[in-house]
Structures
1.
Amino acid sequence: MTERISFQLNGREAVVDADPEMPLLYALRGDLGLDNPHFGCGLAQCGACTVHLNGEATRSCVTPVAAAKGAKVTTLAGLGSEKHPHPLQAAYVEEQVPQCGYCINGWMMTAAALLKSNPHPTDAQIREGLSGLKCRCGTHMAILRAVKRAAAMA
Amino acid sequence: MTSTDILRQDLSRRGILKGTGVLVVSFAVPAHLAAAATAVAGPKPLDPTQLDSYLAIHRDGSATVFFGKIDGGQGTDVGIAQIVAEELDLPADRVTVVMDDTTRVINQGGASGSFGITWGGKPMRNAACEARQFLLGLAAQKLKAPIEKLTVSNGVVSVAGAPGKTVSYGQLIGGKFFNVAMKWNGKIGNDLNVETTAQAKKPADYKVVGTSPRRRDVAAKVFAQPTYVTDVRVPGMVHARVIRPPAAGAEPTAIDESSVAGIKGVRIVHKDGFLAVVADKEWDAIRAARDLKVTWSQSPAAFPEQEKLYDHIRDAAVRKRTVEKETPGFEAAIAGAAQTVSAEYEWPFQSHASMGSGCAVVQIKDGTATVWTGTQKPHYARDGVAALLGLPVENVQAIWRIGPGSYGRNDAGDTVIEAAFLAQQIGRPVRLQGMRPEGIAWDPKGPASIHRATAGLDGDGKIVAYKFESKGFSRLEIDSNESDIAYSIAGQQWGVPLKPIEAFAVPDESYQIPNRLMAWETIAPLLDRASPLRTSHLRDPVGPQIHFASESFIDELAHAANADAVEFRLRHLTGRDAAAVKAAADKFGWESRVSGSAGNADADVVTGRGIAYSKRALTIVAVVAEVEVDRRSGKVRAKRFAVAHDCGCIINPGLLRNTIEGNIVQGTSRSLLEEVRFDRQSVTSVDWETYPILDITDAPEKIDIVLLDHPEIAPTGAGEPSTRPVAAAIANAIFDATGVRLRQAPFTPDRMKAALTGRA
């Protein structure tokens, strides 16, 4: 049973005809053709699928697409661009953070939401705010440097 | 040009040259050289004896090198660009590195054994030297000046003392083939090399090597451009999911198709033990895999009880014993020692647990197949797919796109074979991606093992005899590539017999010990088919387990000798090895004392420091760890590391630091937390809850790195060496903090607490 669901995606109107129970991730990657977020676990355990839903970091692999109805959805592609990077994106490039980088949506989207609510977090607050996200390449030290750098830019 | 631009180009070799301008040269080429450098007339087959197979100069004077390995996110390609740029006197950013397509690059072994720069860089450098020599020959003719008078800067050749007399590489050969033969060593894979008579630059003259240009893939990843194998889309593509058996070795006996009749367009593919579903939409394939009702055959309990794993290894028949080193005086030296020490260590199965499970896209069309894969070894994936489909190898093209994690032979290698089979069965392009358990429960595992050490100390506290023996599952129950379907889950589910390779290793270090016996033994795989506990290469294959044991043992010897752990090691080390140990200790601020005497053992939270040193091939690493142990909970926190790293000539210190950090953090995770759980019939580590890895709240506070650079020594590899000493450094620090020696990894709170209360 499909339903027409529309929402704002990275500032533009998006419409999908989909099973409302289908996770938002598949609407974004499949129906709407985005190359991110990523499928990591499908269990909300890793964060690779993270998007902002009305500004809040949300695991799209377990969020029904129906939950996005009328909402504002922002993905990493909507965070900034090479010309107009989000401070975190600029900091990630400066620190050369990602290795394989498949986890990147989780860390960047969660950190972006964190910096919005707490522009100058302490080291402990950054760690706490990012707890639960996974990075298998072990780039944690570079992630911490980048978030601090981004906070300093703001 | 960013890496994304390269990824997006699906150009043939001819296309690359054409794309930057071809065919017309604006000056007369001397006859003897004109015969060599010809205009591009058509695609040129890859030939390992031809310079053109490795390097091209474009009309704008930039260069492209064709590199038969891949980069998993550590910047190997940047290092290659620097090596080539150095010899060509170009800035690194004017050298593009192509490494993504079996029709464009010769097989240099893919990512393998930290050899990307060490071995992979050799033919690239030699090709660059050859090209430079050839270009200078052309320039000498063109500028009517002797070669000795020519200098090159940014790809422009000038004549010393004659300002204005210049010619650029682009003008000399841009867009044309060199048509220069090189002496090839006849090898394909890691060992491939081509010789040159041209002189390479002296390290003192390096301008590009030793600097830190940035990675080419980072911006694409940060700005969410299509990058990964998971992002590949082919017109008409369908989505597939495999269904693994609930018990290892079980096969479907009945499949209730009606259970997924409500899901649009689902097709079920079943052959012997292999089962998969395919649908137009990804979510439909996922639902079908979840909902399909399958009756499975009974399968014998293939695995031991988890708590009896090490007993199983101890008791198992030895399939192969290899003595790597034995000195004749060993027994006598042990017998005559003032003191002997023995210990045994245990290491569990570990998973690659890549961020995402494997993914591959395969399209079969008119007797040819195109494979997009995240494997580390695309040429071998091509060979495996060709064998599976019965196609000539030249009819299969494997295109590499980075996968979600790359630390050895993970589940990507199984996925590519399965996707090819499904594409053949369905008659449409297939994209297959694993769900979470496929990459944790079902990836090939790093082997579990036990390690026994005995040593004799003389009256001066020096080691006079040392025996170290490992026994465990081979590190290669399946080979580290997918060239043979016997090495894939599907192949084994189809009844292709296992072809295990018996392989392990011994400690790699340079302790000066007069008498040694260093040996390893392998035992049979637990199951004779498609096993979730089959083993293959996982970052630094068998390095972490062996050196956890050997470097913990050296610490035990230091303690027995009543010596400081650093000073004890230095008694037995010289040269660069000793320098690395000293450098790590100095950076840490090591205070000399016998470990375990920190004097804080009564507090609830105690701290300690430990050192470990090891080699990998010729790379030397020493690591000092500082840990904090909460005696109430048993939780161990690795707070601080100091690392000294000597891999010969450093190509790119910036990227090397990030690579080392990754190894230390991943190594910490494996040391403290990682252990594949299983019951008698299946692996029960299926996700991040059941296979936890290090959380950022537990990441170290600080990792200090000392890079010991030796520009005069050829680079010896850095992808993995700093993984191996981590576990022992932590274990030795735990001993220092608590006085308790952990001889079984990982150092979980339960294990630590049990050891502290004497129940270990």
2.
Amino acid sequence: MSEYKRPLPQITEYTQAFWQAAKNGQLMIQECRRCGHKQWYPRPSCTSCGSLDLGWRQSSGKGSIHSFTVIRRVVANSPDFQRDIPFVIAEVDLDEGVRMYARVEASPEQVRVGQRVKVSFREATPEITLYTFSPSA
Amino acid sequence: MTKIFVTAYAETPVSRARVDKGEKKLTIEQYYAWALNMVLEQTGLSLSDFRGIGVGVTGSAYPRAEIWSAEVVQNLGLEPRLLLRGDHGGANGAALLVAGALAIQAGYVDHFLILGADTPMNITGEAALTWRYELDYLMPVGMMGPNSMAAMMMQRQIHQYGYKPEHYGKISVSQRENASKNPNAYFRTPLKMEEYLNSPLISDPLRMLDICPFVNGGFALLLSRDTVAKKVTDKLVKVAGFGSWHNLDASNSLKDITTTGVKNAVKQALEMSGIKLKDIGLFNAYDDYTPVVIMQLEDAGFCEKGKAGKFLEETDITYRGELPLNTGGGLLSYGQAGMAGGMHHLVEAVRQQRGEAGERQVKDLRYSLVTSVGALEHGGTFINNYAIIFGGE
């Protein structure tokens, strides 16, 4: 397998559970055990009540495209994406009520605002499996 | 209440460091020195007159010493009582202006000198320092920095409000006309709508001419307490009001990505200044991208949210028009000097208030509004939102 040349996330004490779950094909989002607030991206405290007591909840992996763009130029720190151009990145609103940025595996003509999408996973390295979305029925 | 006046301003000519075209390639330290020197020349003051003042220095997008503001004053021979560094992206200049005004009102200093410079064109093959959330959750999935985020805001605007490419193009074309009258602007050749429409898509629906180009440049503004301002100049520009808001709607995970916190900042600035929006004769809005200008037109209240298309069709936004917008050309045509870019909007408003804008001078100008946004927000628009009003007695 060739060397992975794209930017990778840093795994920290409070995000390792997320990345471990991703390796098992599960999309997790943070949920506050005190007030029930759900949030993405993972943070060390609840942005609604400040509690440090955060748990994980498995997302259905289903959502809608809030907005999207077709990438036609890469920037200096992501040259390896050049071979994928053009490709689609979207803001996906998960049905659980959080928004995440993700790749949409579809040609630009197939993507529209409001479209339903579903998560799948692609292994990048032994440590990191990245989430990605594709159009659902 | 203490009144605060802008008593000096400076804006260096900018460069894209194209040595092959005979352009200068100066360092960030040189731009700081040049901007300060312009203030000394304009005011006739000497460095010793600046002992014990406040100094604010903008950040830089590229790796610098963590103790940057101290290095800047050491390089320049400044001896300030108060020393601050901006950390607010596009809103660096406005944030330092608010902090400086508060320091003067508190009685801690009589003057506050804002210095801003950045040299993004000197960096090759090296990425700007970025946010942890971008490194972890944006770049790995293929996001290409601010262009991708602005493109999604624009896509959503088009979806919600039906805006057409020509609406965005009008901003680009009108600001270029303003820039054609600004000798300091980098891009001064007038632009046709057709050229805008034919400019290549970079990140759909964002075209090349929706995006501001980087330049190297330097700026300065001097704020002074009312009791000492007249000793500096008789061309006083009053800071009539200001407002700011950060991280609006902080815990909302599903924000409207067509709205900024500028609405809160402008409301506060108008209340402080005691004027109405209709009194504003010039509007300089942060313009890293054309859709961001549209948001600020709406959020400031010049038109309703979602009605900017019609507003742009009916309104002349050049320096001659009903609502002069980014009269110096804005970042789209003047250029964006990295993290100091937002200083351009403030300096241009001050120059216009002094009646020193030459061919592009707005006639009978009483009040100017500058809005600045900075720090792209995860799943939203901008974290930092500022409004500054200049004018009045």
